[in-house]
Design brief:
13 strands; four-stranded antiparallel sheet; binds zinc ion; binds S-adenosylmethionine; 28% strand
């Protein structure tokens, strides 16, 4: 993690904020790392005693760290600086677990979707074109300043935004995906397993030029560790239908964005009742989600949120393809928009 990246940004303790206290986090590098350079291991300390680790250069800033550790420690044992033989042993054990197949498959899908662009079935849209459209839309965002990519996955949009922002924060709940993004940045190459079928994977390696002005961290988009109005651009691609209360995501995005800044949203509105209750979906029998979202952004709907946005660019139907394996592809039709905060 590049410590200078944080100079312009105050990180706020999510745990104290829940108790009504806005406490700013202080960086404390370990291993004698120089706080003005890359920090691979360390902590963010809250003046009230909370601590958040930096693991393999990635800050983890979640309100309930104990719960996160309970769920994530098996991923991390291979990343901490144990003797090499032990690291290999943990990597082997982690690899052998059945849950690991689902994780490897997820990584394969998103690395392909963001970077690998395997050839789709005949006449299907290809991912490279998807990213061209997203980038053209994203270029409508305000140049300079700070951008935030919520639910960044393996980081492609964060890297694109970095071309015209001074600093980008890529944030996701999934350590594995964020670690893959940080690894591309560190090594300047793609190196991942593409799933062929069943348990068969093939290795993909390729150089990839990734900018250095992106900081990836693990945090919750619904409880983000930042002060209000910190960002010039706030983006969330394909996240709205992946959170339990989509309206909370919209209001958090609005809170983080300075006035005059740009909101970037894309979603196929593929609501799932195991993620959010039907009553939370931004659509109903009479009105589709694209219309509902437009009305919420201009405060025609849910005026108590006080949103005041003007849509500056919109793509009604952008094909987005996710490859699960060679015989299972998913094709979504995504609605995308850029909107300026009044
Ligand atoms: C459908 S994927 C989209 C990834 C990427 N934005 C893209 O468009 O390819 C949704 C992502 O959001 C992340 N996510 C889900 N809930 C989240 C939350 N509350 N806070 C941060 N990230 C979240 C998931 O881990 C996943 O990486
Ligand atoms: Zn605290």
């Amino acid at each position: 993690m590049n410590a200078q990246a944080l100079a312009a940004l105050a990180l706020i303790c999510p745990s104290c904020r829940q108790q009504g206290v806005e406490a700013r986090l202080q960086l404390r590098p370990l291993d004698g790392s120089d706080a003005s350079h890359a920090v691979d291991n360390g902590f963010f300390d809250c003046p009230r005693g909370c601590r958040y680790p930096i693991i393999a250069g990635i800050p983890i800033i979640l309100r309930d760290m104990a719960d996160w550790w309970q769920q994530s420690r098996h991923h991390l044992s291979a990343m901490t600086s144990e003797p090499p033989e032990m690291v290999d042993y943990f990597a082997y054990l982690a690899h052998a677990h059945p849950e690991r197949l689902a994780e490897r498959a997820l990584l394969s899908t998103y690395m392909d979707a963001h970077y690998g662009h395997p050839t789709p079935p005949a006449s299907w849209p290809d991912s490279a074109e998807y990213w061209q459209h997203i980038t053209t839309l994203a270029e409508r965002t305000t140049a300079g300043g700070l951008a935030l990519d919520l639910g960044c996955g393996v980081g492609r949009l964060s890297f694109e935004l970095a071309r015209w922002h001074q600093q980008v924060i890529g944030l996701d709940l999934n350590f594995q995906l964020v670690a893959a993004a940080a690894c591309i940045q560190r090594t300047q190459q793609l190196d991942y397993e593409r799933r062929l079928r069943g348990q068969q994977f093939t290795r993909v390696t390729q150089p990839w030029s990734a900018p250095s002005n992106v900081l990836f961290l693990v945090a919750d988009a619904l409880d983000p560790p930042f002060a209000a109005a910190s960002f010039d651009t706030v983006a969330a691609l394909n996240l709205l239908d992946n959170v339990n209360v989509p309206l909370v995501l919209l209001s958090q995005m609005d809170a983080l964005l300075r006035s005059g800044g740009t909101l970037l949203l894309a979603s196929p509105y593929e609501w799932r009742s195991d993620i959010s209750e039907v009553s939370q979906w931004l659509e109903n029998a009479d009105q589709d989600a694209a219309t509902t979202l437009r009305q919420i952004l201009s405060a025609q709907l849910i005026p108590q949120l006080s949103l005041n946005y003007q849509i500056t660019a919109e793509l009604a139907e952008l094909p987005w393809v996710l490859r699960q394996h060679q015989r299972f592809w998913q094709w979504f039709i995504v609605h995308c928009l850029a909107a300026r905060k009044g």
